[in-house]
Amino acid sequence: MVSAHGGRPVAGARHRQVKLGAYVTFEGRTWQVAAVAGASVRLIDTCGQTASVLASFLFADPTFAVVDSPAAAVPPWGLLESVPERERERALAWQRHIREVETGLPGGPADGGTPRPEYDPARQSMAEREQAKADELARLGWPQVSRATVRRMRARYHANGLLELIPRRKPSRATGRADERVVAAVLEALRRQRSRSKGTLKGLRELTGQILADTHGPGAVELPPPSTFNRLVRVLADPLEHPGRPARTATTTPVRPYTPTVALRPGELVQVDTTRLDVMAIGEDGKPVRPEMTIALDVATRSVVAAVLREEGTKAVDAALLLAEMAVPHPARPGWPDHLRLSHAAVPYDRLLALDARLKQAAARPVVVPETIVIDRGAIFVSAAFLAACETLGVSVQPTPPRSPAAKGAVERTFGSINTLVAQHIAGYTGSHILERGKAAEDEARFTVAQLQELLDEWITARWQHRPHEGLRHPILPKKALTPNEMWGALLGASGYVPLPLTGADYLELLPVRFHPITGRGIRINHRTYDHACLNEHRGRPSPTGQPGGKWEVHLNPHDVRQIYIRLTDGHLHEIPWIHRDHVHAPMGETAWRHIRAALGRRGDREAHEAALADAADQVLRRARPTTAAQPAPPKTTPGTHTAKAALQAAGDQPATSLYEAEAEDSIDALEARARAEAHADVGADEPGAHPLPVTGALTLYDADQEAELW
Hints:
The protein has 711 residues and is an alpha+beta fold. The chain contains 19 helices and 20 strands. The longest helix is centred in the C-terminal third of the chain and has 23 residues.
């Protein structure tokens, strides 16, 4: 006989025994046990084939079972600790009495000793021993104990063990003795309350009374007292729909269990999301705007592998271009110190450089090839452009369930870190809530969206990637929090790394596509004319691709409309410049172009109107961005009319200081001081008898008392 468990047989053990001649199922076939030799079991099937199998291997097979003898489930021993101590002690006492009735000894045959005469199996029958035990328990004061009771407890013990000896109680209802009609009315009132603004328990009680009156008639069913009603509601109501809780917690869907997101290699899981940056910036039209920030966070390393700022609504093309940004090396900006380059990061730089020569000039930020991107159900992330780009690059897209912010908890928390660690130190900070906002946050805007993008990229490279993260731990050093760059280097050896060879042509392929004809004057898009000599042989001809109207495939970047890219007959994209591109010295998006067109009416013919629009666009872009030393001097102003825009114009030749050196605010103060000094000097020079302030090259502050003495 072979037992499937070790140790002394217990109640139910006979169901897990394999005897000689027994039939068992193994590997999907029926066998008969022919012999048992040590740890081996000899089996024979219905066809006469034999097999010798180790007992441990036989019992571990998922299909193993004893025919006509189901295996007994392991009893839930943990429940024994949850019952009251008095009942547990009573069950253990019953176990000793049953063993004495069956074996003559309270501890079983292994205890040794001599049985008492009335319980000696050699002298007394089982019925006599059961009666003797009932008489003994009655003398000890056990209530209602008879021979039938002892026999029933023995049967229960052999069926499911010790747990069956615990007294059985009829489970009480959660609602107690409450009227079923009242319970039904309360449940109906709670159902009507879902998805609506919640009131108080008193209001719910009144609604329940109305339901009872409508259902059973006025006064037919009496409402319980308020205290009893409140206890009944606490039992019946879901915690999220209980009256008194905030209305935002009410939901018609059950709460999902929280499961932490785990990734074991770079790029395995990348979370993408968009939010408003808590900083006011200067838009392309010179007005203050609050840009949108889209970031991609690698879950395995907590690295911000891509971050893009846009002046207004992020478009599908921005999400598509985000893929290219995270899959190619980030170039180190001119003027960055050497420790911000990848060659100084804690990664196997020489091995990576052999795979991709572009890493020689790369910044110390991870380059990951995303395998799966986790998105919410925003319009830009479920658009055809973004999904097509992911399909082209072989990236799997995983949408999160509705109303489940925890599914992208890592990227949501990163947004808060960016606002806390860097945004609050930039001029124009709006605060995370309207109640935390200053009175003139718009007037404090000092940087354009492009400048904020430069500062954000530098901060991510210099600070975020070198900042220890409590969620990054290495198995060898579990007590040390690693930085994103350190975790990236540690995981490279385990997962391997080959950068995605995206080129400039791949970047252009991700731009949004439009179809336009090639006319004798070029390509006309939104009151802009694009022309180049390479279009000469195709003017007036239809596209060979068979598009309706013979239109050609055109790729346009909505954030820089100064050029387009057209696919010609050779299959490649060719750059076609705007005829006025040389007149507009800075990138211009469709937003600024629409603003200029709305402000400038039609004057003259089409060519003259387009030239006027180009001149107006250049003037707007010059006013919206700081001037350089080679540009014309700023307009004159007075100390009483000094504004943020005037300071930006007057002191734009001062370069922005690196944020990682924590000097951004100092530079802004210096710019304001210099603007006041230069503005006052200009005013004094225009007035007769005035004495201008001495120019020493140092940045000075405006002093009202000193000014009064000069006048």
